[in-house]
Structures are given as structure tokens and as C-alpha cells.
């Protein structure tokens, strides 16, 4: 009765090139899973933080008080991210420009919007971190695995040409170990593609929410800017 080779035996007995392909795919899969978990936790925290800040922002709290609360947390070493980071960028620029009497209301609002747009771009960069690697793993892993398979089969048939007895049992182990490379390529690619599609959709949702908040906050600042300039004109 012929001895059946285990999966580990097939990997161990594979050619050096196929083993290198398997090692690359295994490393890519491990890194990809690490990034998937990292992004999952980041998006979960960003989602919770966004809803907490929106509830606080629309509760009617004074904007200066909300900004000071953020300063206190920042001084304690807490990172200010997400929607609150956009709010702080816009409010800080608004407060700075509003103190300059020579600037009209439109210039103050436009400056605040520019500051918030920069903050939105920074937040989008944080959200999209690691997504490019997942996309690369998802798109290239099957081809890397296919390369290992083709190389392994080619190696097996080259050995068959030098064999005196050409049977299926002679090439079966070599073909089996080569096909493992394709399986590993799919194992690395499928989770990466699914995670990339999921996270890319979440990035789009966050970006839309940030843009909506920027427009809403700009409207609030616009009313405050016009009220401030009208009061200054009446006092003068």
C-alpha cells in the first residue's frame, strides 16, 4: 500500500522556487490579516467617536466650550481624530480670522472651509491607510500562486522526462505540491478583496458624513460671522 503524503510533506518536498512562492503568500496573508483586524478596530472606534461627537455638537453646547473640552483632552495626551478634528480645524481658523477687522464675512468663512477641507483630507488618509496593500494582495496573490503552480508542474514534467517509468504516481506528488501554491494564493487573496471592498465602502460613508458636517458647520459659522460683523459696524 502506497504511503500518502500529508500537506506538510508536500510543502516540505516542493522545489525551492515553489517554497519561496508559498512563503511570500503566507507572509502576505499574515500581514493582510493584521491590517484587516487593525482597520476593523479603527473603523469601529471612528464610528463610535463620530456619533458621540455629533450628539455633543448638536446638543446646543457653546462652540467655544466644545473647543475648550477638546483642548483639555489634547493636553492629556488623547488624540483628536475624525469629525471633532474637522470641527477644531474650522473653529480655530474662524476664531483667528474673525479677530481681524479688515476681513469681511465671506473671507472668514472661506478660510474656515479651507481649513476644514484640509482636515477632511487628513482624515480620509487615515481611513484609507493599509487599503492599498489589501488591494495589492487581492489582485496579485492569485497570479503569484499560479506562477508557483506552473513552475512546480514544469519541474514535475521535467523530472518525468528523465524517469524510466512514466506513470501518474510519478508526477502526482509534484503536481499536488504545485497546486498548493494556487490554493495559498486564493487563501491570501479572497479575504483581502472582501476586506478591501468592505472598508472602501466604509471610507465612502465617512467621507460623505465629513463633507455634510463641513457644509452644516460652515452654515453655522457663516451666521456667526455676519452677526459679528454687523455688531462691529453698529458699535463703530
Can I get a quick summary?
The chain contains seven helices and no strands. The chain is an all-alpha fold and 236 residues long. Helix 2 runs parallel beside helix 7, helix 4 runs parallel beside helix 7 and helix 5 runs antiparallel to helix 7 (168-235).
List its salient traits:
236 residues, mainly alpha, 85% helix, rod-shaped, transmembrane, cell cycle, cell membrane, MotA_ExbB_proton_chnl
Give the secondary structure arrangement, pairings included:
Layout: H1 7-12, H2 16-57, H3 63-75, H4 82-98, H5 105-127, H6 131-161, H7 168-235
Helix pairs in contact: 2-6, 2-7, 3-4, 4-5, 4-7, 5-7, 6-7
Shape descriptor: rod-shaped
For the biggest sheet, the summary is: none
Topology as a string of helices (H) and strands (E): HHHHHHH
What is the arithmetic mean of pLDDT?
86
Show unreliable segments.
Answer: none
* Helix content bin: over 70%
Give the strand tally: 0
User: What structural class do the secondary elements suggest?
Assistant: mainly alpha
- Helical stretch count? 7
Number of domains: 1
**Cα-based radius of gyration, to the nearest Å:** 29 Å
Oligomer class: single chain
The proportion of residues in beta strands is under 5%
Cα-to-Cα separation, first versus last residue: 105 Å
